[in-house]
Amino acid sequence: MASYWEEHLLRTEYPLLGEVTEADVCVIGGGITGMCIAFELSRLGKQVVLLEAERVGSGATSGTTAKVTVQHGGDCYTRLIGRRGEHHGVRYAAHALWALQRYEELAKEYGLDFDYTRMPLYLYCNTEEGKGKLMEEKHAHERLGIQSQLVDPSALPFAARAALMLPLQGSLHPLKLVLGLARVLQEGGGRIYEHSRVLKVGEDGVVTTAHGAVRAKQVVLATHYPIEDFGGRYFLKMYQERSYALGILAPSLLDAMYLGMEQDSVAYRPMGEFAAASGESHETGKDPKGKPYPRLHQRVQQQLGEIKVYGCWNAQDCMTYDGVPLIGRYQKGDEVRFVATGFGKWGMTHALTAAKIIGELVVTGNCKDESLYAPYRFSVMDLSRGYRRHLGTTIASVTAGWMGLPSINKGGSVPGGRIRRRGGKRMGIYTTEFGEEIAVHAKCTHMGCGLKWNDVDKTWDCPCHGSRFDRFGNVLEAPATRGLGEEDKA
Ligand code: FES
Fold first, then answer.
1. Which regions in the chain score pLDDT beneath 50?
2. Closest by alpha carbon to 452, among 462, 440, 443?
3. What pLDDT does 391 receive?
4. What is the C-alpha separation between 127 and 350, in angstroms, rounded?
5. Which residues lie below 8 Å from residue 103, measured CB to CB, with a gap of 6+?
6. What pLDDT score was predicted for residue 490?
7. Measured CA distances, 65 to 268, 316, 404 (Å)
8. How many Å lie between the centroid of ligand 1 and the Cα of residue 143?
9. Ligand 1 binding pocket includes 462 (Cβ within 6 Å)
């Protein structure tokens, strides 16, 4: 379903890559991250080609609630100091603060209008435990030099036990930003291709699509989840999470953003005359309770009373195990391939961080914060933790995928998706409301895990690393690059 950002927006059409061409840098992915990186590299004098599998600004960018903030989750700095130390906490916060400022400069310098608005963000809590965490986070702010202030929670538009205010955070319109940057990129000589899904990235910088190729000196993978996964072991470094948003009419929420400390709390941000309420996150392919929109609606009503809902949408985010994105060289010592992923729910801030870091690495070969974000920073112990966490899911799903085992067997011919075994294969059968059946091979083309039906979006989702396919088997989300039934296409 279309998100709020996609409505009433005129898009520029970009051609399909239908030739073999050359570039200094090929950026793969036309979301906010890929566009910010391509824009920065072009600004630094590189000849850039950007390839997008669908339309520029589709995918994760279209589903974001587009909060630009230094606060990346309720207790992010308490955890960051605990895991990576105060030095890295200071640098991480400095990047986030810089991004808040940089958006303002981009709007002014290039005459871009993407509704960038500065406003406070309130961290709130509803429990004693949440209050304890909020006080610890305040202490972490003091250690790292982040401005924040405890405020009277009764001033919030809903009941809260305590609240911490961070001034001058930001919000923006992500599609207006991406389309604006694309225009400036193209005016500066950058080339953009849409409907050009990348099938292969060579270690030599050759990027292959179905109808063409780019011979680049360097390549940046900005595909949300890296499409070339085996060498970098990204599947051991992160997992994917889905979350849901409602567009609501709530005038009391229009001048600030709100973020809860508790796991099940709702986040809010204003959007013109409406607000977005988001929450109900779960790992992709593993919604434990089902019906996320009614649950979110109920939680919002508990906080705000009766509300008018005008729309809903969802997003998928790549989550790292230490909460810090993976930005930099694809592998240690790699001079050709770079990657930006694992942004959690904070892509607006990290997109600019990625542009800065990858810009420096590509142009000078160095970046002083390379170690903080390096995708290869994890120890064998860290990787084995990621491995153990997903071992059960992976074994069950791979077994189902390879052995053809059905994991859903009910439903008969009622509309919806179910797994059947046919001809020794594990098939996903989607029955339309008119009784028509659409059958796909329900084995993920990434690494062979068994797919699960997602009845909210009518998609086939992979519980292993988060690839998603529409009911016809077309790829919606990486790391898979091939549709269902296309396993043998190179
Ligand atoms: Fe990796 Fe499906 S996403 S096996």
1. 408-409, 488-490
2. 462
3. 62
4. 30
5. 68, 114, 116, 170, 172, 352
6. 41
7. 9, 12, 38
8. 40
9. yes
Pairwise CA distance, residues 318 & 207, whole Å? 23
Distance 489 CA to ligand 1 centre (A): 17
Q: What is the pLDDT of residues 269-307, one digit of tens each?
A: 998 888 999 999 988 877 767 789 999 999 999 999 999
Residue with tokens 């995918």: 59
Please tell me the residue having the least CA distance from ligand 1 atom 4: 447
Is the pTM value of this prediction over 0.70? yes
Q: Is the C-beta atom of 446 inside 6 A of ligand 1?
A: yes
- C-alpha 95 to ligand 1 mean position (Å): 32
Amino acid at 116: Y
Q: Nearest 10 degrees: CA dihedral of 137, 139, 141, 142? A: 170
CA of 467 from ligand 1 middle (Å) equals 6
467 lines ligand 1 (CB under 6 A): yes
Q: Answer whether 447 contacts ligand 1 (Cβ < 6 A).
A: yes
C-beta 354 within 6 A of ligand 1: no
Counting atoms of ligand 1 from 1, which one is nearest the CA of 467?
Answer: 3
Helix (H, G, I), strand (E, B) or coil at 325: coil
| Of the candidates 113, 328, 116, the residue with the CA atom closest to the CA atom of residue 232 | 328
How far apart CA 464 and CA 486 sit, in angstroms, is: 19
Give the number of the atom of ligand 1 that is nearest the alpha carbon of residue 447: 4
Pairing of strands 437-441, 425-431: antiparallel
Q: What is the pLDDT of residue 420?
A: 87
Atom index in ligand 1 nearest the CA of residue 465 equals 3
pLDDT for residue 403: 61
CA distance 295 to 291: 7
For residue 307, give Cα distances in angstroms to 5, 6, 125. Answer: 21, 23, 21
Quote the pLDDT of residue 474: 92
Ligand 1 contact via 449 beta carbon (within 6 Å): yes
What pLDDT, on a 0 to 100 scale, did the predictor assign at position 222? 96
Does the Cβ of 465 fall within 6 Å of ligand 1? Answer: yes
